[in-house]
Request: fold
Amino acid sequence: MQDAAIFAATLGLSHPWQITSVSFAKDAKRMDISVEFSGGSVLSCPKCGKEGNSMCTETECWFHDDFFRYQTYLHARVPCPECTCCGAFQVERPWSRKGSRFTLIQ
Reply:
């Protein structure tokens, strides 16, 4: 899927993030992109550096009003890791970096 590689590069995705599907509704000018975090990836606590356990995931939906001239919904399964000494911590979402114009809607 060539489209997935182009979108992954534009979103700044690298391992362990991967695009699992891309769909277009040309008449509605809508695109849906699904992104997942590869299972078995090591997650390190940003405070202490210890490996965190990720027993669950959350589903998030992000919106961009003009991504490749389409209204775009990015659907992501994001891990919810926990550090044994620091507690839960957030995983960096590459598409949410400053200036990306993606907004969390769910």
The CA atoms of residues 58 and 70 lie 25 Å apart. The longest strand covers residues 51-67. The longest helix spans residues 2-11. The chain is about 10% helix and 50% strand.
